[in-house]
User: Fold this.
Amino acid sequence: MPGNRAAVTRRTEARGGEGPAFALSRGVVLLFAVACGAAVANVYFSQPLLVTMGHDLAMSPALVGSVVTLTHVGYGLGLFFLVPLGDVADRRRLIVAQLLLLVAALVVVAAARTAAMLLAGMAATGLLAVVTQTLVAFAASLAPPAGRGRVVGLVTSGVVIGILLARTASGLIADLAGWRSVYLASASLTALLALVLYRVLPRHSAAPPTALRYGQLLRSTLTLFARERLLRLRALFCLLVFAAFSTLWSSIALPLSEAPYLLSHSAIGALGLIGVAGALAATVAGRLNDRGLSRRTTGIALALLAVSWLPLAYTRSSLWALFVGVILLDLAVQAVHVTNQTLIYALHPDAGSRLIGGYMVFYSIGSATGAIAATSLYTVAGWGAVCALGATFSCLGLLLWAFTRHSTPGPAPVKATSGGGDGTRS
Assistant:
C-alpha cells in the first residue's frame, strides 16, 4: 500500500474553470473500490449466520429475522441523514470518522451477549455502512468529467464484489472461528482502511462545501427530486432492478438447501463467486456512459435482466441454468446501477452526496421489497412464483425504459480530446 499521498494522487490545474483539482491514479481508485466493498459487506455478513446467531443468543425465529431488517433500516436512514453531509463537510474527515464509528459498531456486534445488544449493533452497523456512498460521491467528484463513468464503474465494482462475497467470506470465517470472528475481522480491516484513507485521500475536494444548515441540506435533497425528472426516473429504475436483485439473493438459499441439492451454507455462499461477473458490467457500463451511450446501455441491461429469469426458473433441475441466470442478472443490475449513478451525479456535481444518497434510498426500498415479497411468496407458492415475481420487477423496468427513452434527454458524451467519442447520444 503506498505510503506517500503524492505517489498516488497528483494536483492538476483545472482547465477553463472545470474539472477536479486532483487527478486520480489507478491505485487510489482501487483503494476507493476496496473501501467501498469492505464497508458494504458489513450489511450482508449476517445472512448466512442467522441460525448460528439465534442459537447462541437464544433468539426466536422472528427476532432472528429482524437482524437483517434492522441492518437495512439503519442503512436506509443513513442514506438520507448521513450521506448528504458529504456536500457540507470535509469528505476525507467525514469518511474517516464514519469508518471509526463503524469499527465501534462492529465490536459491539462481536461482543453482544443479548439479543438487544446484537440488534442495536446491527442497526448502527447498517447506519454507518453508508460511508460506501460517501466514498462513491467523493471518487466521482475527483474524477475528470471525461472519465467519470469509468471511475464510478471501477469503484462500484468494489461494491458489487463486497456484496456478493460477503456471504462467502462470513460463512468460511464462521466455520473456522465462529460468527463473532467475522465482525472482529471486519472491525480490524475497517480500522486499517480508515488509517490508509486518512493518509491517502486529498484534504479538500475540488469544490468548496455547500453553505447549508443541516435542515436545509435535507430539504434540498427533496427539492432535487422535485426538480429533476432524470433523477426521479433513474431512482425508479434503481428501485425495480434492486427489487429483482433482492428477489433472487434473499431467497436462493431456500431451494438450494432442500432436495435434490441439500447444499451447505458455505456452498450456497460460494454462489456469490459466480455473481462477481457483475463487476465486469460495472466497469464496461461506466466506459459506455462516457461515450454517451447511457440510454442504450440501460435498455440492453434491462432486457437481459428480464431474460435472466428464464434460466433461473429451472434452478431446481439444473445448477448450470442457475449459474447462467445469476451471471445475466448481476451483469444487468450493475450495468443499470453504474449508469444511473454516473448520470445523476452529472446533474449537479456540487450536490453529489445528496443526489447519490437520495437515489440510494430507492435501492433500500427496492431491496427490502424484493426480500420480503420473495421469502413470503416462496413459503406459499414455491420457487416458480419467486421467479415470476423477479421477472415482473424486471419487465416493469423494461417497460418504464421503453415509454420514457425518447421523452428524457440523454447526456452528450464528454470528450477528453477533440477526436474522442462517436458523438452519439444515449
